[in-house]
Amino acid sequence: MESISSECTPLKEEYEKCFNKWYSEKFLKGDKEDACKELFIKYRKCISSTLESTGLSKTINNARPHIGSGFTEENK
Amino acid sequence: MKFFETSYSFNSSWDATTLACWRKYPNDKTPHVKHVEILSRELDPTTGILKTERLIIVSQNVPRIITKMVGAQEQAYVLEYSEVDPSSKTLTLRSTNLTMKNFLAVTEHITYTPLESDPEKTIFKQNAVLSADGMMSRFATLIEDYSLKVFKANAIVGKLGFEQVLERILSEQRAQVPL
Fold first, then answer.
1. Tens digits of per-residue pLDDT, B116-169?
2. Is the predicted pLDDT of residue B65 greater than 60, yes or no?
3. Could you tell me if B130 and B150 are in contact, meaning their C-beta atoms sit under 8 angstroms apart?
4. What is the pLDDT of residues B17-58, one digit of tens each?
5. Which residues of A touch B35 (CB under 8 A)?
6. Dihedrals φ, ψ of B73, to 5°?
7. Using CA atoms, how far apart are residues B69 and B62, in angstroms rounded to an integer?
8. Predicted model pTM
9. CA torsion, points B26, B27, B31, B37, in degrees to nearest 10?
10. Which N-terminal stretch is annotated as signal sequence (chain A) (predicted)?
11. Which residues, given as ranges, of chain A have pLDDT below 50?
12. B43 and which of A12, A34, A63, B99 could share a cystine (Cβ 3.0–4.6 Å)?
């Protein structure tokens, strides 16, 4: 699926491909090491400026406790 | 305030069904879902639980009168937080809308667990609360009724899209198993 920043779509696809394979073949079998972390960081960095331009970061922070998320700005 | 609740079982293992959650979009049944971005993801090394936060961007399909009342917005944003516990085989997803919140707040809670008597089946449970508390009461009921209708319609197409993706996963897996 296209990323909100179209230039990040290849990075997103590369990461998701890695994740889906890791999820089925490693994670569900008990592996506790995230093998796709590097690709995630690259993809996440790519979309960060577009995400910021939505102006939603405060709203996201406020919404987090309502859905049980312990994530913060720092550990994205 | 309006409530929505549903549950059903999929004829597929929990492993395959939860993979379909990650691969659900795009599918041709839910063209209103434009983008799904992964905001955060973390694997807890002690518990083995995978935590994910996603931002879902949906094109609005609300009547003109409503967009005029609340200020037109082309896209709606939804925040979703999920936890996958592979040892207890539980996937929990919670989500809430980020846009038009003063107008209508929707929170949704979904779980996927294996059917105890048959691990080749997966139980899906969904419930949602819709509330237009910020609105004057006579509008609130109207908005909630309308939104519940939209929510139900989206739940139906969402399930169709999900099943399409799940079927693709199952046929890939069948192809991998030597006969």
1. 999 999 999 999 999 998 777 788 888 899 889 989 999 999 999 999 999 999
2. yes
3. no
4. 999 999 999 999 999 999 999 999 999 999 999 999 999 999
5. 1-4
6. -135, 130
7. 11
8. 0.93
9. -20
10. none
11. 75-76
12. A34
Q: What is the ipTM of this complex?
A: 0.95
Interface test with A, best of B19, B23, B41 (most A CBs within 10 A): B41
Find the length of chain B.
179
Query: Is residue A14 within 8 Å of A22, Cβ to Cβ?
Result: no
Give the DSSP H or E segment for B119: strand B118-131
Is a pLDDT exceeding 90 seen at residue B91?
yes
- Tell me how far the alpha carbon of residue A7 is from its chain's centroid: 16
pLDDT in tens, B92-118: 999 999 998 888 899 999 999 999 999
CB contact under 8 A, A1 and B26: yes
Of A1, A43, A59, the CB nearest to B35: A1
**How are the residues of chain A apportioned to helix, strand and coil, as percentages rounded to the nearest 5?**
65, 0, 35
CB-neighbour burial class of residue A58 (10 A; exposed 0-12, middle 13-18, buried 19+) = exposed
Instruction: Give the residue from B39, B52, B88 with the most A CB atoms within 10 Å of its CB, the best one to mutate.
Output: B39
Do the chains contact at A23 and B19, CB–CB below 8 Å? yes
Residue B171, helix vs strand vs coil? helix
Contact call for A70 and B53, based on CB within 8 A: no
Domains of chain B: 2-174 (3.30.530.20)
In total, chain A counts a number of residues equal to: 76
